[in-house]
Each structure stands twice: as structure tokens, then as C-alpha cells.
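Running co-folding for pyridoxal-5'-phosphate.
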Amino acid sequence: MEDCHKPALFIGPKGEQAQIFAGLWQHLLDVTMMRRQTRFASDPEWSPQSVPGNLLDAPAMRGALESLLALLSNEIPTFSPRYLGHMVSDVSVPALLGHMAMLFENANLASREAAIVASSLETEAINLLAAMVGYDPKPARGHFTSGGTLANFEAVWRARYRLDHWLALGVWLKLRGYSDAPLFTWAHCGWERYYQEVSRHGLSERDLMEYSGVLVGPLAMSRLAAEELDEEWPEPVFLVPGNKHYSWPKAANIFGFGREAVWGCQLDEAGRLSPAGLQARIDEAEAAGRPVLMVVSVAGTTELGMIDPVDGVSDLLAGLEASRGLHLWHHVDAAYGGYLCSTLRGDGARELSPAAQSALGAIPRANSVTLDPHKLGFVPYACGAIIVPDAESYAVSSIHAPYLEESPEAKFPSWSTTLEGSRAATGPSAVWLSAQVMPLTVEGHGRLLNQSLRVTRQLYGVLASVSADIRMLAPSDSNVVCFAIAAQGDASSVANQKTESVIQAFRDSAELSATRTQLGCDNYGDLIWQLVTGWGGSVDSEQLTVVRMVIMNPYLEADYLTEGIAQHLTQTLQAALAELPA
Ligand SMILES: *Cc1c(COP(=O)(O)O)cnc(C)c1O
């Protein structure tokens, strides 16, 4: 009996828990209104009748609202377990309530003085996320962003600050004949070495400012390097996995590095970043005298849900540091997969593969990490976060703070240390409230994600058994399922046409939604070759089209709902396959 009245974590695809949600929502409104009534209790009440301009035309308001709601009734039903498309699903009740409670406060995180409570909530929420990914929350720093893209930009801003300081020092030393090491070496010298040199030569901030490419611009530095050092100004590169999430070319564009600065590293046959491929790119960058602005590994790739070997990458970078004193910034883009770390906290069965666990377990060795609570955190948009292990990694060339001076507000970011100016506090509030009732451990949030990993395996099995022509990609490290359609001996171009028709069948069907993705042979060559030769075909196209499903909907926890989805999937696919030309 008890359990019937316990609020559920989600409202339900049919609003099954709407009553209970409505009770909580009403309570939220009551308390919010009570705050207004009692805050300045002796003030006179406002009478809208005395200010006609403030009156709402009730029928017009109602009509406009009806129009909006009518429009929204045609929006994609991401709340339904039938939605197996992009990395989105229903949001949780605590996240929704946390988000809505903050809407009434309309707090702006741009400055601590404008939002005292919201600012400390943000710090607490960042600490919770930091602990989830394995950073020590005490020294960790970070803030919420509007999403993973912005969080990635925040990491670039910080990595560039560090690189710029080290390069500026190198230029100063070389100009005065104290060093003949290439600028590449100075660009990765490490803070310890940096501070040694700064103190040895009694350098002040001002001395280095004129050699800061960030402050004087790369053109001026390029002239100086050519005229006085007889060297080319070293343009930095981003080393990212070959599948290059669109946020990296965007970052290069915005920060003025250009398209050519984004270097893709080879993926292995499973579609994960290959540490050997990364090593080759680092060697190439060194040979070309191009400093590495950052190395990016991805935990939960957008295409296949793969988790790059963050541990292997960390080992490689630690080796470079130990043997050659080269410090390369390692950023983990865990926008999608970061929340899977909750399955690693506390005692409980683990559904992730040992390799995935070990990769996620290495996140605390990285210099920065991106998380997207609005994906596997079941938090409403727009909510991303950037987290770094310590204040040193959080520093940026602040607009008003003097160069080299650490922001005094380090623990409480303000407009000057975030790319965004005004920032909503709804995300931190949602993350905070959610973590109170769904702790970021294997007993809480992790239980839900473990369940989605089990459902993913179940649906994978169902799909694989529908027809021999359904060619499953190897199981993903997380909860993404991909497959192509091909008969024995089909060339990849023929398979692409068949897969496209099946995707069209999904689009035309009101039953289910799925997405597609195109894997390019340039990055996924090994994976594609293995798959296509596996069905006896040849690769005669630049890319392989696959159906892609993200299995993150929380309602699939119920077996009978999963079975219903499995049936719809089977029927839709059988019908689509029957339509294919023989
Ligand atoms: C979703 C995602 C992003 C971008 O995040 P937004 O929240 O859409 O800005 C970046 N990287 C990866 C790996 C992602 O999955």
C-alpha cells in the first residue's frame, strides 16, 4: 500500500503519476506564493485593477495558451518509450521540480551578489557531479553551462590560457638566449617548470604579457617570431577522435584557430580512439612544431555510444610527462556518458564492461571534463557542466583581473570567468534536487542507468533475431544500438540503400522513432570493413549508413513495456524488409 502513494521518479508516458506530480507542483506553488506574501508582510498589496495596463485579457490569454498547447501537441513524443531516437527522453520529477522552483526565483548566476542561494546551490551541484566522476570535490572547480558544446568551449578557453602562459615564457627565454629548446617544448613545460623559470629570472606579469598570443594576437606574435627568433609562430592543434564531434570544429572556428587546427586521431575497429593513433598524431605535431592545445577523449560517442580508453590516453600522457617533461591538456568529453560514472559509485552489480569501467574510472586523471545533465541526468534543457580538478586548471584570462592573477572568485564563478554572461540557475537546482532523492550512486541514479544498459542488451538481442539481413554493429559500450540492412554479398552501397528505406519506414510509421547516422570510411574504415566483409560484401561507398537507437527511456524499466516495444520494432522491421526489392 505504502508504495502506491510514493511519488514515482517520472510522470509516466501516459501521465500515470500526474496526480502525485500535481500535488508536489501545487505545493511548490503554495510555498512560492507564501514567500511572496510573507517577505515584506507590512507592505501594501498590489491591486492590478488600479493599473489597467497590467490587466490580462483573460479570454485572449486563454486562447493564446490553447494555441500554444495545440502546437506543442505535435511535438516529438520523447516521453514515450516508443521514442528510440536521439539522446533525449523524459525528464525526472525531481529534476522538473528543481527546475521549476528556480524559474520563480529567476536567479542569474552571472554574479554571486545577484543570486546568493543559487550560487551556493551551483557550487554544491558541481561538487556532487565532481564526486560522481571521481574528482575530489574540495579542490575541484566548475560551473554549469547551457550544454556540452559550451562546456567544451570552456575547456578550450582554459587549455589556451595555460598554453599561452607557457609559450610566452618560452619566447621570453629564447629571445634572451636562455634557451634554445623549440617552442613546442616550452608550450608543454608544466607549471612547476614555469614557476621555476619565473622565479629564477624574477619575472613579473608585465614581462610576459607582451609575448602572450592571446593578448597581442597571433599575427603580432608571428611577426615577432619570424623577425627575432627566426622561427615560425607555432599554431596549436586540437587532437580529437577521428569522428570529430561538431563542437570541436566550432571551437576552432570561434577561438580563431581555423578548420585545419582540428586533427582527427585514428579510431580502432570498435570505433574508439586508439592510443597508438593518438601517439602518432602527437609525434606529427611535434615534428611540425605545432603545440597540442588539448587532447580530447570521448566518454559516450554521439554516433555509437562508445567510451574511449580514457585510461590508456592518461597512461600515454603520463608517460610523456615522466619521460620528456611534456604536459598535454587532456579533456574528456563525457557529455553523454559521464553520468554512467554513477554506476561505479557504491556497492552494486555493474553492467558496464570492465574496459568501460576502467576508462570512466580514469576521468579524474584528466584536466577537464564535460557533462550534460540534460542527457543521461534526465534534467530539462539547457544544462551542461564543465568541471576541472583544481583552481589552477580553472584559470582563464579574465577580462578585468590582471594577467596571471588567479580569479578571487574561483570557487564562485562570475560573468568574467564564464563564456556565458547571464546564466540560468535552473540546471544546478534541478541537478541538486534530483541528487537528493536519486543519489549519483549505483543505488540511486546508477540503478536507472544499469537498467537501461540491460534493456539495451535485451533489445539488441531482439533486433538481431528479426532477420539475417539485420547486421548489428558490435554492442556499444553504453546504451546505443546501431545496425545496417544487407543481404549476403551486398556491397556497402546496396546496403546503404536498403538501410535508407528502412529508416524511411520508421519515419513514415507512427509507431516508433529511430535515427540514422552515417559512418565515414575515413574514420570508421576498420569497423566498416569488418562488418561488410562479414556478410560477404565489398566496400564501394565513402560511408556506411546505419539505423541508430538510443535506449535511455526510463519507462523501459518495466518488462511489459519493453516487450511491447520489442514487438513494435519487430513488426516495423519485418514490414520494411518485406518492401525491399529482392
Ligand atoms: C551532446 C554532446 C555534445 C554537445 O552537447 P550539447 O549539449 O548538445 O551542446 C558534445 N559532445 C558529445 C560527445 C555529446 O554527446
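Result summary
Confidence is low (pLDDT under 50) at residues 399-410.
Residues 148-359 form a domain with the Aspartate Aminotransferase; domain 2 fold (CATH 3.40.640).
Job closed.
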